Amino acid sequence: MKVEGLGKEVPATAAGERPLVILQEISFAVMAGESVAIVGASGSGKSTLLGLLAGLDLASTGSVQLAGEALERLDEDQRARLRGRLLGFVFQSFQLLPALTALENVMLPLELAGVPDAEVRARQWLERVGLAHRLGHYPRQLSGGEQQRVALARAFAPSPQLVLADEPTGNLDAATGERIIELMFEINAQQGTTLVLVTHDEAIARRCGRVLRMQGGRLTEETVSA
User: How far apart are alpha carbons 159 and 177 in whole angstroms?
Assistant: First the structure.
């Protein structure tokens, strides 16, 4: 992944107002297999940046390149296909489909990718995250930690090149969050996936190979973890 001169503005809503500048001149690269944390206070632009990296929104200026493809040159359908082929997501709010069981939630991206043994693979992944006994349960029947385990299985099951995680422990208590982070880093290491993780938690950030710090919509510091 390569990011160059990325900026995001929201147009003014009234005459005489200035546009709201959310991101300014963001540039960095992420190598295959790296783990990178993006850290900053609330409102610093972390989640907006993650959305731009995924092509869920388009920047006002600059470029995001995934696997050599410049996202700003693709239409919405092309970006969606690229996401389906390359990316996995882990969200703070889990984002499981409420009408689907745990098994069906994990199967969905596999089926969309045309994987022939989607159910077998989904079962294997749910067993891997410790939920073999919860395959037929719906999200409302699962605890927060269990829902995030389903989300981890869903993210990694299609063997993505890159996983984007947005505050993956934000809706969990400390003990549950620690178990989820342990599991996520364990799976990520085993899979050799590239990981970009947005967090406000310094302890989680230090587990990544590199930390990018944001303030006021700008990158202010880059450090390499010991």
Answer: 23
Cα 61 to the center of its chain, rounded Å? 22
- Spatial separation of the C-alpha atoms in residues 180 and 187, rounded to whole Å: 11
Confidence band, pLDDT 50/70/90 cuts, at residue 41: confident
Question: What pTM value is reported for the model?
Answer: 0.90
Residue for token digits 């690229």? 82
10 Å CB burial of residue 79 (0-12, 13-18, 19+) is buried
pLDDT, residue 162, reads 95
Distances (CA, A) of 184 to 44, 140, 196: 25, 22, 12
Query: Among residues 148, 146, 112, which one has the least CA distance to residue 132?
Result: 146
Residue 221 is predicted with a pLDDT of 84
